[in-house]
Write a structure and sequence with these properties.
The structure holds three protein chains of three kinds. Chain A is an alpha/beta fold. Chain A has 30 helices and 34 strands. The radius of gyration of chain B is 24 Å and the shape is flat.
Chain lengths: 866, 274, 225
Amino acid sequence: MEAVVIKDFFWKYPSFTGIKTDYILNGINLTIREGEFFGITGRSGSGKTTLCYSIAGLIPHQLRIPNHVEEHIKGRVEVFGELVAGVKKVGNAFEVDGIGSMAPTVGFVMQDPENQFLSMSMLHEVSLGLQMMGLDKAEINRRITEALDMVGLGQYREVADRIHPAELSGGQKQRLIIASFLAMKPKLLILDEPTSDLDPAGKLEVMSTIAELRKRTDMTIILVEHNPDVMLKFADRIAVLYGGRIVQIGKPLELYSKPELLRPYNVYLPDVSELSEFFSMDGKPKFQLEKSQFIPDRKKGIRADSIIDIKDLTFSYPDGTKAIENLSLTVTKGEMVALIGQNGSGKTTLSKVISGITAPTDGLVNIAGISANKKSGRTKLPLHVGYVFQNPDHQIFTRSVREELAYGLVNIGIRGKEAEERINSVLARVGLADKAHEDPIFLGRGQKRRLAVASSIIMRPDILVVDEPTTGQDYRMSRDIMELLTELNIEGTTILIITHDMRLVAEYCRRVLVMSKGSLVFDGTPEELFVDEEILAVASLSEPQSVRISKELVRQGFLRKPLISAREWLQFFNFMRLKSGFEFCSYAAMESMVTSLSGSIIEAKGKPAAVVYIERGGMVPAYMMLKRMPDVKTYRLRASYYSDIGTASKDVEVYDIPEGLQNIDHGYMLLVDEIVDTGKTMLRIVKELKDRVNVDIITASVFLKKESAFLPDFHSREVNSDTWIVLEYEKDETLHSVGVKRPEDLEKVSAMFSGEDSEYGRIDADSRKVAERINKMSWDTEAIVYHRPDSLLFARVLSDALRVNNVSGVTGPEEVDGLALGNVEGRIVLAALNDSEEIESISRRLSLHGRVELVMPSAQTTTETQ
Amino acid sequence: MNNRDEKKYVKTILFTARADSIYVRMNPLSKFVILLLISVGVVLSMDRPVPDLYYNLGSLAFAFIFLLESGTLKYLVRSYLVMLLIALGVMLLWWLVFNQTGTNPIFSIGSGWFHFQVTPLSIYVGTGKVSGYAAMSFLTLLTVMTTRDADIISALRNIRIPFKVVFFISIVSRSLNILSDDLETIRQAQISRGGRLRSGGIIGHIREFIMLAVPLTVSIIRRSVEVGAAMEARGFGKVKNFTGFIDEKGFKWYDGALLAFGTVMLLIPLLLKG
Amino acid sequence: MDNSTNEGKKPVGEAKADYSMYTLKWKGSGKVSTTQFALYAIQMAVVILLSYMGVLYTPVVGPGIGFLYWAYPFFVVFTLWWGIWGILGAWVGSVVGAGLLTGLPPIPALGFSIGDLVPALLIFLLYRGYLSKHGIDPLGRDILKNKAAMAWFVFWVMGVTNVIGGLWGVWVLVQLGFVPPHAYLLGAGLWIIGDIIVLIIAPFLTAKITPIVERYGLINTGWLT
């Protein structure tokens, strides 16, 4: 029997103030078998929680829909054959249909354990559901004992009636809520990120219990989770939600083996998926490992003055309980420190003492030269220490983003022009410039988090304390926030991060403090922590996947030291692969090579009937060729490409093959690219095209790597496989990649890009100015469309400066609908040299696919069309 | 919560109390009735031109004994004593100033319409009032500090108060807990953004409370939406037959003994009046 | 259930104020839903907490009389939103938060808390029963914008109801023998002035936070729902 059947389900939240809302669930079709462990993942705001609420029967029944029910809900949700949520027609109007909550058959554990804890003791909490079921007392008692045992709280059974909710940690509360539902013996248990407050080891423990229970009882489980390790270990199938739709569904191993399928949806990937170019998940080796002397390039400790000086700190609560005892700690200026430990270990208390929010009971606390022992000192500390709380809702005091930023400034006496300047610069920095007048309460989760950071950094603190910066955030949000913190750190702010996330610790922090029962039990680097089994056990931590694999390689003698993050693995692979140098190619040099290349081609083959270039690599050479043969028809095609951390996808996918190619019936077509590297892309494209076109395909590339699997018909320069070609018009991307892969060479490569006084130099400068303006406006640019061929170069430089890969060209409005722009949620930038009627109509067509912004290199301001 | 051995103390509405003390083990309804009985007695003794100082001191002693026995006296001293002393001091002052009674002034100032004197009688009346008030306050705090929310809820259920009403009270008391944490965090967030750096006083207070409003409202709404959903998920909307609480506190001998004591305490002023 | 992700969208035009839905009907919008059940309990907890904090953090000016009762403006606003539940909140907040939890004995607490319940009740009656029919916002959002609304607020909320509350509350304290009879007027005066001061924030609260609650569709149109 099917546990859950969802058919064409749409849901939109009611609005009570005339504000238009969109569908949060957008045509969900899903069947979950009885006894299945089904995982749901996806970016924040993709509809995961809403889907759970619908299956649990809380949507739509728990909400008041003022009118037009049929506009809010379509389709149906059935659970064990019963209609739970749907809509029916009664007379001329529609009404909500279905039985709603199916408790106790369906249990639903939500994210925040605090709000689900409804009673005043541990015992009452587990018994509440059972009492509402009307079970007899003996049965209730039996089930309570059983359920508490299952979640590892059995030792409290005897005193459960004396344990008040306030005495439990977040993790214990989560376990207890899970126990409360397990006691009700549901046939379907929905778990919406149920372990977010648990430390890594606790998380696995609770999930194992549930998985085991499922096997014993044939219970169906639906689990919403970001963590790929949990999904891989427990789920039979997973679905990826994006924009209220299911965009991928399948077995976790299959999906995580194809990271290119998941990356666009901002889901967290296992470390090995991040490195899928090198690691294979299907048993076929991809990389030949050799014994290596590689040592990851890790930032060294900083020698500077101390900024946090704590000696023998003790902190006691009014009832005498000690949260911190005899703790001493020194942090120097400019450090980025992770503070970890189990719930209740004292880390939050410590950070609040550092911020001057709470007063130390005993010991000496000196922060940024101010004594936090004195009240007058603590009052001044907010000038030096910013504190970003875990829940952004608790730190929003006003009704507009701008006012929110001004709040702290007014408190420290900064008003007028200086305040304005600070607000504008911080808004641009956190990417909220276009939200300045919006109500912060209704911002998205990631934006709220950035606003919270912005509200702190606007006061220019020397130290920034951030509590759990990535909890509940999707992959991209987490990255954004961590990149922002890293930038601040580079600029000199000392950063203290309280976290459970070991991947984050490994990747971003060079010093880790571990607290346990009010004391500091470890102070060292992440790599030292990950080899200290005792501390890992004490603090209930588990090492990231990267560390686990590399420890094994160290044991086998392949590596000298464990690698702690995907980033270090990448450094390692690149070290093994790329040992040689860089070769710079200016725009002028490229142009001269292309000119002579075109000359040779025309000389040997005559003019081609068509030039086909591969977006984006082939754009510039094609543009240069077309200058010599302006009357030749040009086409573009796209091949899959991924460049976030420099890895190419496993299989090359070719799409957007122009239909016009089939109509060429004479001469030959010329396929152009800038560099043929491994040759995989060219091979694949030629194979695809051969079946579709009736003429010869001649291939040309400016650069050719020596070990390429494909030899083009024409090329200008052959280079060693490990040479890194540095293209002048790819400045931003190159510097980014070098920074990630070979930071030691960054300075050298930066110096290669010295300004050129040529015609190109001007185009480059103009285009980058436009990009800068676009960045200031904080548009979330997802695609660039250019008017071909004139604005090709402009678009190419923009794509580099904005780091946007989705670039396509059109020659007229009729081609717009043929562009495979994908699911554009941000904006489409339309690049043109000047405005014209044709551009207007391209823009109009484009606006059907997303929000369009027209940019021109000449205009001082960008114009906006909707 | 790390160790179950720590459960010698239980968390009560305010602070914690010794789990096996009489006042903690008593039925909360008995405690409340005793509080009412003695308070009425004290009010009767106070509501006379000359209050009965000894009666009030007796009540005060009763409260002290049980505060000590339940291990809550230390919390009262740490958290409320200063506030209570100020309140009692202010009360004494009001009675000395506005109750110009008695002869043989110990202290006198002014004449005519502005004449203020302190007499042995006015001191006796003032002290009587203050001691009565103090007795009631300490008894109230004793009751609050030794009672667990869970016990109140069980007791109400025991006397057949409808399930939904009891559950409403349970949610109120649970929310007190959650929201006091929220309020504390909000206040801390204000401090960390320099909220203390601006001038204080009444204007400062007004500003602080206005600034509290937005995050507090958001908290109320988010919490109620989620608490509502959590209740539904447990089956709240479809309860047909609710099983009574499983740890009901019956009436024990000490409930009876202390109720009898309370009754006597009520009768004393009534008999004296008669 | 986050139904607030309406990023970047603006209202589709300002509707002309229509207050006719806010009435003195018993059930304004049907039965009490589970979410409302939770909401009413939680708002009551908030009033209790604010009352408690108000008493702890402000000076005592007379026996049983704290000077600044910060919960007052909040329960006024909650009453305008949630009718009977706000009124009950005012009373319970006063008995429990300002009373029992701070050591104020139950007898005076039960007695003088009527001095908070009655004003809340009278405020609700005026705003829903009369003002809403005369172009004044029954939720008080227009107090700072509309002179008539301001006048009613000063006259009724700061004035009449507050005076009734103060006179009643201190009368109870006098009857119980806590306040000397000669100090009745002084006590009542302090009570009333204190409340006038804290009520200054009420118009800011209504203007600032009512739209949030409205946006979630959680405002009562009648007494109970």
